[in-house]
Specification:
The complex is a heterodimer of chains A (114) and B (112). With 114 residues, chain A is an all-beta fold. Chain A has no helices and eleven strands. In chain B, strands 2, 4, 5, 9, 10 and 11 form a six-stranded mixed β-sheet that branches. Chain B has a five-stranded antiparallel β-sheet with strand order 1-3-8-7-6, with no helix packed on it. The chains are: A mainly beta (114), B mainly beta (112).
């Protein structure tokens, strides 16, 4: 089974802090994604990556950046955390160059910014 | 712009009471429609992929169907353990490549 591991289940950070959310997958998937999930808004795509050192903006990239130095690892960075970034963050991966490939999700990181 | 709308937002069923969840979509060229189950505090878990109108897939008490404009997730004789949020997603938007565009989900509660 595909395993997507997010390093923290819960994080509490202060406004203005730089925050790193880490994600590792063990199935050699080319594509990796970061979504945030909020009540009433559903899942929204922040950034995605098709290969090492490549990144593409999703629908809501403002206030975020990403890093992919190794194929299995995809990091989401909040440069200066704000309270409106309090959310559940979900990492996912799937097979590259293939449509109809389901996303496999981690269990999420619930981030609270105070 | 691609849109995915799920209804109802919430559904409460008695154990054994069959029903259906709806996912309607507006996309420019559907490549796949996906159903996920999400339990509280966990990430979405993949259930089905449907590729073309008329296709059906089944898993235990769940059956997913697809038309050109919508998909249904039929739940037959549900049990309390089927309680979860069910998410529908489409893969279609070229700019997002292989990412999925999700609906807001249907929260299902099955009571004994």
């Amino acid at each position: 089974d595909v395993k997507v591991t997010q390093s923290s289940r819960y994080l509490v950070k202060r406004t203005g802090e730089k925050v790193f959310l880490e994600c590792v997958q063990d199935m050699d998937h080319e594509n990796m994604f970061w979504y945030r999930q909020d009540p009433g808004l559903g899942l929204r795509l922040i950034y995605f990556s098709y290969d090492v050192k490549m990144k593409e903006k999703g629908d809501i990239p403002e206030g975020y950046s990403v890093s992919r130095e190794k194929k299995e690892r995809f990091s989401l960075i909040l440069e200066s955390a704000s309270t409106n970034q309090t959310s559940m963050y979900l990492c996912a991966s799937n097979v590259g160059q293939a449509y109809n490939s389901p996303l496999h999700f981690g269990n999420g990181t619930r981030l609270t910014v105070t | 712009e691609d849109q995915v709308t799920q209804s109802p937002e919430a559904l409460r069923l008695q154990e054994g009471e069959s029903s259906s969840l709806n996912c309607s979509y507006t996309v420019s060229g559907l490549r796949g429609l996906f159903w996920y189950r999400q339990d509280p505090g966990k990430g979405p878990e993949f259930l089905f992929t449907l590729y073309s109108a008329g296709e059906e897939k089944e898993k235990e008490r769940l059956k997913a169907t697809l038309t050109k404009k919508e998909s249904f997730l039929h739940i037959t004789a549900p049990k309390p353990e089927d309680s979860a949020t069910y998410l529908c997603a489409v893969q279609a938007t070229p700019k997002s490549g292989y990412a999925l565009n999700f609906g807001k989900g249907t929260s299902l509660l099955v009571t004994p």
